[in-house]
Design a protein that fits this description.
The protein is of the alpha+beta class. The protein has 4 helices and 12 strands; from the N terminus they run βαββαββββααβββββ. A hairpin with a 2-residue loop joins β5 and β6. α3 packs across α4. The protein is globular, with a radius of gyration of 17 Å. The N and C termini lie far apart (about 45 Å). The relative contact order is 0.15.
């Protein structure tokens, strides 16, 4: 039985695409509205952060959500936290944790990733939230441990999972609208891996080692290094000791 999306959502479903992000961007730039979901059974050109390839075989969930916001484009990066929380809600396991900035872990192993892009007119920008979930399988040749929902003992219906993610985005987006980014950050930190612990952050030209203390008001990672300096990091790859 197919579980339909919540009221107000529109789905475009494809057997195969180069990338749901590319297809969604075309729709957004052509005037596509709010809460549009682009989904493919397979992708030939799926990608993650920094243009890294994302393995996209059939059996996993690949989708991009198009949202429209009546607020400055610079504020919309907070939607990555809303999407992370929505994914955590959709996976019924106590071992789910969130990794800054946009990964979902089970038992410390990467299970899902999020990619955020935005553009359009300043008065009503569009935001693309690309989501990939390892459902039936996961990569093995990666610099970090990975897993899938099936490997964790979850029999998952892709349509039902898609619906739960959409419901979660509605919920956490609403929290953001009503209570602001701080409420999102507080909820995210409650589920985050590594808070108060030592981490390594790989930046483009250097590496920082220190303690993961918090998020700042913009959602940047605050790391306290051994010299007691605090660094606000907007982008980087986090590794745990």
């Amino acid at each position: 039985m197919i579980s339909k999306l919540p009221a107000g959502w529109t789905e475009h479903r494809f057997d195969s695409l180069g990338s749901t992000m590319d297809a969604a961007r075309d729709m957004a730039e052509s005037g596509g509205g709010d809460r549009i979901l682009v989904r493919a059974d397979m992708q030939s050109g799926g990608r993650g952060r920094y243009g890294r390839s994302w393995t996209s075989e059939a059996g996993n969930l690949y989708l991009t959500v198009i949202l429209r916001e009546n607020r400055p484009l610079s504020d919309c990066a907070q939607l990555s936290f809303a999407a992370s929380l929505a994914l955590a809600d959709a996976i019924p396991l106590d071992t789910v944790r969130l990794k800054w900035p946009n990964d979902v872990l089970i038992r410390g192993c990467k299970t899902a990733g999020i990619l955020l892009e935005a553009g359009g007119e300043a008065a009503r920008p569009w935001i693309l939230i690309g989501i990939g979930v390892n459902v039936a399988h996961h990569p093995v040749d990666t610099p970090y441990a990975a897993t899938s929902l099936e490997a964790e003992g979850l029999a998952t219906d892709l349509d039902a999972l898609c619906r739960e993610i959409a419901l979660g985005i509605d919920h956490w987006r609403g929290i953001w609208h009503k209570q602001g980014a701080t409420a999102l950050h507080r909820a995210w930190l409650d589920r985050a891996k590594g808070v108060g612990e030592r981490i390594r952050v790989r930046l483009r030209e250097r590496q920082l080692d220190g303690v993961f203390e918090a998020l700042d008001g913009d959602g940047r990672l605050i790391v306290r290094t051994d010299d007691e300096n605090r660094h606000a990091i907007a982008a980087g790859d986090v590794f745990f000791d």
